[in-house]
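Co-fold these.
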Amino acid sequence: MAAAEPLIEVKGLKVHFHTEDGVALAVDGVDFSIAPERTLGVVGESGCGKSVTARAIMGLIEPPGRIEQGEILLHGPDGIVDIAGLDPRGAEIRDIRGTEIAMIFQEPMTSLNPVFKIGDQIVEAILLHENLSRSQARERAIDLLAAVGIPMPRQRFDHFPHQLSGGMRQRAMIAMAMSCNPRLLIADEPTTALDVTIQAQVLDLMNALRRDFNTAILFITHDLGVIAGMADDVVVMYLGKIVESAPVREIFRHPKHPYTQGLMGSIPSLTDWGARRLTAIEGVVPSPFAHAQGCGFAPRCPHAMEVCRRRSPDLLKVGPGHTAACFLHQAAP
Amino acid sequence: MTAENTLLEVRNLRKYFPVRKGLLQRTVAQIKAVDGVDLTIRTGETLGLVGESGCGKTTTGRTILRLVEPTGGEILFRGRSLAGDTDTAMTDVATASPAQIKLLRRDMQIIFQDPYSSLDPRMTVGEIVGEPLQIQGLMSRSERMARVLDLLGAVGLSADHARRYPHEFSGGQRQRIGIARALALNPRLVVADEPVSALDVSIQAQVINLLQDLQEQFGLTYLFIAHDLSVVKHISNRVAVMYLGKIVELADTRELFGNPRHPYTEALLSAVPVADPDFKVERIPLEGDVPSPVNPPSGCHFHPRCRYAQDVCRTEPPAYRAVGQTHFVSCHRADELSLRGMRSS
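Predicted complex below.
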């Protein structure tokens, strides 16, 4: 993770939602960076703040949500831009979306317009950012459809989203996201809605594109199996905070945070033949409105100590490139 | 013919849904959602049923319970006498009268995938869990309440939850409510239709552990329908793989995962992401999507996506046959192919 010049740096990011029920601390102080051409996997369960983090990077936080604090620094050839400080409806962020950062979502049907042909939607994305003629853009779109493995791209160009299967739609979404050669691709649960054999096709495609386009990827998922196959580095999120961060092999071999250990114990193994009982994490994720003192995981943690209920642990180094926010691995304060 | 320990025997089960078109709503085609399924479930075991969306696994589960009317076939089930102490002869659920069905409901229940849509938002948890007892007219009001509290305790909820409404609960807790309702009548067979796929990983593990504990405690038999192969491997004694309305392979769990005999099973296993960054497996690409069940391919339904397909596969439907003591497969080439299963790590 510690490359010379990161592509993007998130520093002290806090995104809060001001609702009638109170203030939800959706993202509550998150730091990470992604180097060019690396894939950072973000793992966590519903409500941990992983999608809100991604939306903040895209400049897509809308009221009642608000970026309260922090910076999202995009390093470009012309210097550094702080996305967190841009007007979400301004020209600057619109310029960044698509050309610098693109995003694909879990359910492609909600992000493709059902009344336009998929080819025209890709052409529109290209024309928005690049100075090409319509016919040049059309050829580029057809090339992209071919590059993402859509058979008969020239015919598929004129199809509407509902005429494609789920896997094909996700491929079309990826083609659109890659249309302007973004330096960072944010993929938010891109294969969760797909069947396992189709998921395998889409993951293979993303790995191939990553090599061909030299794109960095922020890959958000709840599936540890997918993370193991896709990510170079992993951050684990819980209740709006990063609880652990490490290179992929390190985090799977030596998980340090009890939450990460709990997640790994919760998934049945495909390769282990012993009849082992799953070590489930007790209890449920607390409400993001609660704002309890201390470590957010303490109420569910089998190792919780007295200090964990009083103070919130910092994310500190526990190994090479490996950080964890847990008092078990820190000298007594 | 039927072994002593057989709880359920399904023979040539079929369910076709008509495709209607035009002003007169004439039937123009049939969707063969379930197209000749044979399987047996033994008392006390968990049979896993896996397959991708649209393969017919959910319809199979619902047809077995007669929540969906079968088009044809037999569903032989060993129920209990009214007193509940002795087994009855095998009853054919497929042709049972409404009165018989009502009795069979005491022995066959279902847990649904979506814990949000499967609970009536206007009933309290106590009413939801007690409703099966009320419908069957089995207990007085006070006995019923006592039973509901027992059930809530058994699934890890507390007595004061009985007065609350479903919207006050998280997804995992709602699934516990659904499980308590399914167990209210003390059934023999529970069809669990994707019971954990809507839940977060840590909650999923809690519910899987609960299902296993309850099985031991109440001597339950499960038909466990899921698309997640690692969950199925964990919970099942035997596993059946479905593709386009048919069972293509069925074997003991260890045998099926370690030594698959059907090319579809092999491809499915190779596609599952393993939570180990050093586990490198050569994926067997399955080209294209699952074909439409309205117009399935000729011969073996899997042949257009099968890398071992030969001429015979395109013309002749393969027979579903035994290739070992407890291993069944429908593939023309099962005897000559050597397929790759999951290695242990």
